[in-house]
Amino acid sequence: MLNNKTKYSQFIKTEAKRLGFLSCGISKAEFLEEEAPRLEKWLKNNMNGEMRYMENHFDKRLDPTKLVEGSKSVVSLLLNYYPKDIQTENSYKLSKYAFGTDYHFVIKDKLKDLLHFIQDEIGEVDGRAFVDSAPVLDKAWAAKSGLGWVGKHSNLLTQKVGSFYFIAELIIDLDLEYDARVTDHCGTCTACIDACPTEAITAPYVVDGSKCISYFTIELKENIPSEFQGKFDDWMFGCDVCQDVCPWNRFSKPHNEPLFNPHPELLSMTKKDWEDITAETFQKVFKKSAVKRTKFAGLNRNINFLKDTNL
């Protein structure tokens, strides 16, 4: 007969699948010992650039029991966003994760449904849902939960589906059966390191956030430093280069989440269309998109930076 831990864990994983999650893994809510020195060194070397928020809540980033009192388990979940269709050839590029509705909304709703299911089926369970919006080291928890390994480009990788997915968590005060880590399958491959246009992957498993195209086009509020002129490979929001070249992403399959489908106009927009984009078109095409984070002015700044490069 199954013990409760096993039974509850299976319940949760079955429901996660029903809600459309790619996979679900569970780990013990405890201090992330291996991550502490790594994070400390990364911050000390200013690899967070202007992302000062990364310096806040250092202890909470490493210890979920400080985020959710009495927590015992971290339920990690992956949601596929790999698109069926991509942008037209002659276009400024947008990271694939931003094609459709902002993932925060989509995943938060699914996590709430999962938490309610746990409470209905199991009883009084307290917890919180996290989608990239609090000091939680998503990739570290997903790896600890056996969902993949952190690759040399610092993204989570799995053998069966690559890396084009979002990571989210439920941190709950319920004892569950914990999954084992998987092994690293990067081997001697350095495709991501070799392909990074700005040399942001400074060593295997180390990404200097302050040199990353995603950082410049989304996080940085000031002007993009001129020394990076000509190195953006036409990326205007985010960057997928290190994922696109990864051999494991040969196994990526299109998602089946209608909310992640792009606005009909987005995929056919050319460089000229982007250069002429108006505030109205921006609002229409990115109505509920993560691109709103950079705002119309930010996207314009990025497009102008690329346009100047191409002159």
CATH class of the largest domain: Alpha Beta
Oligomer: single chain
Number-wise, the strands total: 10
Percent strand equals: 5-15%
The 3D shape can be described as: globular
What Rg is obtained from the alpha carbons, in whole angstroms?
A: 20 Å
**Total separate domains:** 2
Label the CATH architecture of the largest domain: 3-Layer(aba) Sandwich
Essential attributes:
two-stranded parallel sheet, alpha+beta, NADH Oxidase, cobalamin, 2 domains, 13% strand
Explain the layout of strands and helices.
Blueprint: H1 4-18, E1 23-28, H2 35-44, H3 58-62, E2 73-80, E3 93-94, H4 103-122, E4 127-130, H5 138-144, E5 149-150, E6 156-157, E7 165-172, H6 191-195, E8 201-203, E9 206-207, H7 213-219, E10 235-237, H8 241-244, H9 271-275, H10 279-285, H11 295-310
Parallel strand pairs: 3-10
Antiparallel strand pairs: 1-2, 2-7, 4-7, 5-6, 8-9
Helix pairs in contact: 1-4
Subunit structure: Monomer.
Main location: cytoplasm
Domain 4Fe-4S ferredoxin-type: 174-206
